Amino acid sequence: MSSNLDQLYRQVIMDHYKNPRNKGILEDGALNINMNNPTCGDRIQLTLKVEDGKIESAKFDGEGCSISLASASMMTQAVKGLPVEDALKLAKIFYDMMLGNDYDDGSYDLGDIEALQGVSKFPARIKCATLAWKAMEQGVGKQEEE
């Protein structure tokens, strides 16, 4: 990756960290998922409103590093309005990107999420980036059981 692209990606990550999208908690019967990364202390509370198999709304709160909170901001933006099945496919694409595997099959516009691809070079930070995504998977999994 060129240093200009690295710089742009750092700016996108810092923008989501300093100005998080969808920060807060949903009430009124929303799914509530708490997860943490004991290795570094990242903690996230994700709330999802899922209706008729679609993620109507997603918000998060928590504490953590810039990677963790920026990823949560990007994830909530990306999955809002998606059918659960598509949100789970997007999570799979994200994990492939985090592992340095081929990931872009062109079916989703990853938008700002691609700024996190450099995290794959830092194995210790991958858990930071995937925390919110794992919370989303757990949340929709719980919802499907009900």
TrEMBL record:
One of its GO terms (molecular function) is iron-sulfur cluster binding. SUPFAM superfamilies: SufE/NifU (SSF82649). Residues 9-128 form the NIF system FeS cluster assembly NifU N-terminal domain. This is SUF system NifU family Fe-S cluster assembly protein. It comes from the Bacteria. Transmembrane segments: none annotated. InterPro entries: NIF_FeS_clus_asmbl_NifU_N. One of its GO terms (biological process) is iron-sulfur cluster assembly. Pfam families: NifU_N (PF01592). Belongs to the NifU family.
